[in-house]
Amino acid sequence: MSVHLFLADPDTAPFLADELRRAAPDAVQREIEGLGIAADVPLEGLLLAFARQTLPSAVEVNAASINAWADRIIDASAGVFLDDQPWRLHLWPQYGEGKAGLHRCELIQASLIERMKKRRRKLLRSLLDSDAVFDAQTSLVQCILTSPETGWLSASLAPQAYAQRSLISSFPRGEVPLADDKSAPSRAFTKLVEAEQRLGRQIERGQTCVDLGASPGSWSYVPIQRGASVIAIDRSELREDLMRNPRLHFETTDAFKYQPPQTVDWLVCDVIAAPQRSIDLLLEWLREKRMRHFIVTLKFKGHDEYPLLDVLKREAPPQCAEFYLTRLCANKNEVCAFGVV
What is the pTM for the complete model shown? Predict the structure, then answer.
């Protein structure tokens, strides 16, 4: 079985290791310092909340020069990807401080382009620069430099990146730049926007959202700004300007008991609650098909309750067209469940 490399933030690598052990107790794991975990676990049906990015069938690489790195990347794609098949390259450094690593990656990419101009022009023409969600035709090469001359290389032939998009992020390193809007009631809106970007769908004008636990209003603010309508549920009112907006309907009621009169386009929920309550809430909405899309934050105190996520991994995907479970870049001690019903 192939060994896959699962990237994790340094503070969450132990939780990723635990998550992998629960998913595949017999898999062999190896901690890769500064990166994450390498493991021979099957990817089919795997959901990992604490994996920032996945490099399928990753191999350790030594390359003595910039040109050697470019040749390694060409070797991983030429003869594997069809000449007219779109593909992307994620190339980044994971060593040192300052810009030396970034500069080396820029030089490698420049060398790669020059070499493809001479030897692989069709491959060059099909190289895409995009972080849009993968489609079934797009392949992916990922290359991490752990020093100027060492690193990891992974090639995902289409449709792997699309089929396993809950594990393989379309963003290099799996990192999404945080949104910025100083007019929002709080920074919490960045979680909603990041989940939309990872999903490849966003709340649009004319749609209807239910925001459970809406106060002070950051998760209602986003759809209101876009021209959507919001049913905001909370015991406390939202910011005054949102309360005055004609597209916002506010109800003072229990977020865990509210039921919409008809199916809504989006359920969004950033309520402060025990994770089991939020998991039960999401599963109830999924079973009743009360929404078409959802973004729900699961908030934790400490680390002991992370295994509760396994219930969601087991019960939610059969009820969804797409299901994601990820610790977002914008999350603290939280995990975000989002998807399409």
Answer: 0.95
